[in-house]
Amino acid sequence: MDWFLIFLIIVFSLLLIIVSIYILAIYCHPDDGGFGQSIWCKILVVLGLCMSWGQLLLLPLDIANSRGTGGGIDMELLWSIIYYTIFALLGFFIPQAIFYYESDEDKPLVSRILESILSEVVFAIFFGLTLILSYIFLNTGDYPLKVYSKDFDTLTNSTIFLNQTDFSTESQQSSTSEVEFTIPFKSYIMGFLAFLGYFFFVIFGGIGLAALPLDLIQQFFHRPKARTTSEARQIKARFTERVHQLIQLGETLQQQEKNLLQPGQGWWAKRRNKGNFQHNLKIYQQAVSQLDEEYQIFKLELNIVEANPIVASFLSTAFLVFLSLYLLWCVMKGNFKVGVRIPFLMTIHPMVPDETWMNSFLFNIFLIIICSVSVSHFVSQAFSQYARYSEMNWIFGVEIRYMSFFTYFFNYNVFPIAFLVISFLGFLFVLFTSFKKSEKQVEIDQRKQRLNKKTNPKYDIELQQMLLKNEIKNDNQEQEKTHRNTNGKEKKRHRIKEKVKNVKDKIK
């Protein structure tokens, strides 16, 4: 038993769970947020993402386990567990969770569960019949063999010494034959899912293969600049000062409003004071709104570092892992970028950060899982010589490749050719449409433009005058208070002296 491989399995499993939870947190709608909301759906989302990434990481593990005397891990059992789990997710659990989530929330819990189970039974019957009937008729394969034969002349002696020149290849013959074999049901499930997934893989992966690098490049060139520490401190100090000023101005306006209710004012004076108060209140409200908008922009600029992740190098020995994960990343990018579209009408279950409901999450996880099976097949065939002793190479490279009906698609490279064509078309599409600023930078620019449109220079001047008058008034009040305190102390001191003098006079 290779304990280092066991250690890698545990570490990568924990990392996959963390990354899956992070993706769920980014895209999940706030109404579905929290640990207790739609917990079953969230468990399926995390499990589905782990299965998608995990099966790709099993391929290099399978190769490492097959080298030398072997790592002692039963990879056939491990692959069976992974793909039976994927089959259960796609055929039963994810559809049932979608049906339950989309049921009427006003109905009782038992009624919702029974309704979702009934819908799932209909889906499972259709899915199961398609799989079983196709397996009955397509469960065989023809493995090609090339046979070489050599004819020898009749020997007259029982003992003969053969030299190298005594051999000739002229009489050597070769022929091609096929050996028919039966596909195990486990392998057929993998091939069936890979075949279905290829139709989504060539679309999402082809678009993502072009969109991902171009989007990363344009995000780098148009990346927003983060605030430095000194700039952030200066802006915070300015915000603090402005907040104190607006609080004092608000207290002054409250006092003005109270003065309007006091009796003894003439009609004309009361009307004039009320007009001045409403005008000052309007300026004050705009100043508060402007300060709040500037604060929101400042928060976006502080969090802009999230858009520029730290650059990290990758190990050359992990190239296979990197390529596998990169292809699945391209699939996810294509899925999140274009989704399942009805041309010129709408996108079905789009993935939008902070706005994705759980039924949309489950629908897209369903597509990503089935695409991940195709990615595993694609990578295993691309590195077939490197993975020739692994369990996966036997399953994908022999059993699935030569299955009846499927062999025409796999032997003639139908899906790789379609993948390249869509990648080229996607490259042209993304090249002319994708070079734009990042979403965070666009939001900051839009907020600044709206803020500039709302800002009235006349109100800014009047606000400064109001703040200046209020500051002068506060200073005068402080001076008067200080003067009163000083006079009070002097009078008190004078009274004390008078009392002392009177006491002395009485004593005399």
Topology pattern, helix = H, strand = E: HHHHEEHHHHEEHHHHHH
Q: Are there runs of 5+ residues with pLDDT below 50, and where?
A: 305-317, 342-346
Shape call = elongated
Quaternary status of these chains?
A: single chain
Radius of gyration from the alpha-carbon trace, in angstroms: 38 Å
Membrane topology: Multi-pass membrane protein
Protein name: LMBR1-like membrane protein
Pfam family, one: LMBR1
GO cellular component, one term: membrane
SSE arrangement:
Blueprint (H helix, E strand, L loop, with lengths): L2 H25 L11 H28 L8 H27 L7 H29 L2 E11 L21 E11 L2 H37 L7 H32 L6 H36 L16 H20 L1 E3 L3 E3 L9 H25 L8 H10 L5 H6 L2 H20 L5 H16 L2 H51 L1
Antiparallel strand pairs: 1-2, 3-4
Helix pairs in contact: 1-2, 2-3, 2-8, 2-9, 3-4, 3-5, 3-9, 5-8, 5-9, 5-10, 5-12, 6-7, 6-14, 7-13, 7-14, 8-9
What does this protein structure show overall?
With 508 residues, this protein is mainly alpha-helical. It has two domains: 3-139 and 185-222 and 323-430, no CATH class; 229-306 and 451-481. Helix content is 71%, strand content 6%. It is built from 14 helices and four strands. The protein has helices at residues 3-27, 39-66, 75-101, 109-137, 185-221, 229-260, 267-302, 319-338, 358-382, 391-400, 406-411, 414-433, 439-454, 457-507, and strands at 140-150, 172-182, 340-342, 346-348. The protein has a two-stranded antiparallel sheet with strand order 1-2. Strands 3-4 form a two-stranded antiparallel sheet. β3 and β4 form a beta hairpin. α5 packs across α8 and α5 (185-221) packs parallel to α12 (414-433). The protein is elongated, with a radius of gyration of 38 Å. Residues 305-317 and 342-346 have low confidence and may be disordered. Residues 472-489, 499-508 have a biased composition (Basic and acidic residues). InterPro entries: LMBR1-like_membr_prot (IPR006876). It comes from Pseudocohnilembus persalinus. It is a multi-pass membrane protein. It is found in: Membrane.
